[in-house]
Design brief:
The chain is of the alpha/beta class and 246 residues long. It is 48% helix and 16% strand. It is built from nine helices and seven strands, in the order βαβαβαβαβααβαααβ. Strands 3-2-1-4-5-6-7 form a seven-stranded parallel β-sheet, sandwiched between helices. The structure holds 1,4-dihydronicotinamide adenine dinucleotide (NAI). Residues 11-12, 14-18, 36-38, 61-64, 89-92, 112, 116, 139, 141, 184, 186-187, 189-192 line the site of 1,4-dihydronicotinamide adenine dinucleotide (NAI).
């Protein structure tokens, strides 16, 4: 068990990649808080962890609300006694070419993907710094490095998240807290299933490993960075993209 006695929060843990991360961390012994706006799916994922013999709770959290993220940390510590791991996975897209992108499209994506992660980090890192131990893993994206037409808001939010990762790593290294990012390529979830079939086929041609990634591919990377096997790694970006970008 890589995460025995550890306590983890996974934002956006109800479905998709966050769900796979929650299940994987729990399977290695972590007690997991699933923090998400989606109560129904969150309840199902929590139940799945419990059925497999793990420990999990669901807390309804909108990561854009600092009051919610403070409550998320407080309730986790009240329930499980401590907090060691934070996975900032909650994220949304509102894709449009720049000339058609509204102020609202821009702002909402930045608020959830970047400010949301900041809110969670600010709430959680106090507890971690005090305990002189913490593992923060931010789910960024390949497009936060390469850019992507139609995703000015999303790619800027993910690029910002990578820069935030490095600053958190520098500010809290002396307190035993590491902070790393994962940059997934194209992963088979609701987010990418919304793409037209032809666009998906074209995409797969650009991936050396010739398939989309799975949520489990990303979860393995999170498990590694959240474990003590990665204790000398901080401020790093791990690409999980089938070789699409090297
Ligand atoms: P998804 O849409 O299946 O899941 C996102 C989860 O975040 C949902 O459970 C949703 O309810 C939750 N969420 C949304 N807004 C929230 C808020 N304000 N507060 C709390 N929870 C909120 O998406 P998916 O594909 O699982 O993506 C997860 C993360 O991985 C996102 O950050 C995404 O940007 C990133 N990613 C996804 C890729 C993909 O190909 N699917 C590729 C690269 C990165």
């Amino acid at each position: 068990m890589l995460l025995k006695e550890r306590v983890a929060i996974v934002t956006g843990g109800s479905q998709g990649i966050g769900r796979a991360i929650s299940l994987r961390l729990a399977s290695e012994g972590a007690r997991v808080t699933i923090a998400d706006v989606n109560e129904d799916a969150g309840g199902q994922t929590t139940q799945q962890i419990k059925s497999a013999g793990g420990e999990a709770i669901f807390i309804k959290v909108d990561v854009t609300e600092p009051g919610d993220t403070d409550r998320m940390v407080q309730q986790t510590v009240d329930t499980f006694g401590s907090l060691h791991i934070l996975v900032n996975n909650a994220g949304i897209t509102r894709d449009r070419l720049i000339l058609r992108m509204t102020d609202e499209d821009w702002q909402r994506v930045l608020d959830v993907n970047l400010k949301g992660a900041f809110n969670c980090i600010r709430s959680a890192v106090r507890v971690m710094a005090r305990a002189r131990y913490g593992r923060i893993v931010n789910i960024a994206s390949i497009v936060g490095i390469t850019g992507n037409p139609g995703q000015a808001n999303y790619s800027a939010s993910k690029g910002g998240l990578i820069a935030l990762t490095k600053t958190v790593a520098r500010e809290f290294a002396s307190r035993g807290v590491t902070c790393n990012a994962i940059a997934p390529g194209f992963i088979d979830t609701a987010m990418t299933r919304a793409m037209p079939e032809k666009a998906r086929e074209e995409l797969i041609k650009r991936i050396p490993l010739e398939r989309l990634g799975t949520p489990e591919d990303v979860a393995e990377g999170v498990l590694f960075l959240a474990s003590d096997r990665a204790s000398y790694i901080t401020g790093e970006v791990l690409n999980i993209n089938g070789g699409m970008f090297m």
